[in-house]
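Budget justification aside, the reviewers requested a transparent look at the raw inputs and outputs of the sequence design task funded under Objective 1. We therefore reproduce one unedited record. The lines immediately below are the structure tokens for a 165-residue chain.
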């Protein structure tokens, strides 16, 4: 069984309009929401074997906050270029390259690609993956390269302003 957690980076800062997009940091709300969402995920008793992030500062910082909730060091977060503004094809490319020993993986990426990708996975559709959102699915496969063709089961969708969280 493989479990995939797709996480959109937390709210980022637009204080410096001329700043390179990859270098945009989290804003104050993002710095608050990312650890809270990591804690919520940990409270679901869902183990994560691998944290994989886009190289963008805001995505990596979000991954770091989630990893800290799991007592995982930032050095153990993998950075994958293909997750920066990824298309669905990029997400599947990243998934197919994951080691099969990792049964639960969290990927940290960006809109619009992450919303488009989650909407290809199950019949559960979302209009938008808000900043800090987590969309989780599982598939009854033993290898990540089989994930694309497998039937997926929707597990949950959570986001910082979720009133029922």
């Amino acid at each position: 069984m493989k479990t995939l957690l797709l996480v959109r980076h937390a709210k980022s800062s637009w204080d410096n309009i001329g700043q390179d997009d990859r270098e945009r940091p989290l804003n104050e709300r993002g710095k608050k929401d990312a650890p809270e969402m990591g804690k919520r995920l940990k409270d679901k008793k869902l183990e994560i074997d691998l944290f994989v992030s886009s190289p963008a500062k805001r995505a990596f910082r979000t991954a770091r906050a989630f990893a800290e909730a799991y007592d995982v060091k930032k050095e153990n977060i993998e950075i994958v270029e293909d997750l920066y503004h990824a298309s669905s094809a990029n997400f599947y490319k990243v998934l197919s390259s994951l080691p099969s020993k990792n049964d639960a993986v969290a990927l940290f990426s960006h809109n619009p690609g992450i919303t488009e990708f989650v909407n290809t996975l199950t019949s559960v559709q979302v209009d938008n993956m808000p900043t800090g959102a987590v969309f989780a699915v599982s598939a009854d496969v033993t290898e990540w390269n089989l994930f694309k063709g497998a039937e997926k089961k929707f597990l949950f969708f959570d986001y910082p302003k979720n009133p029922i969280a």
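Helices lie at 28-43, 57-69, 88-96, 113-121. The first strand starts at residue 2 and ends at 8. Computational costs for records of this kind are itemized in the attached budget.
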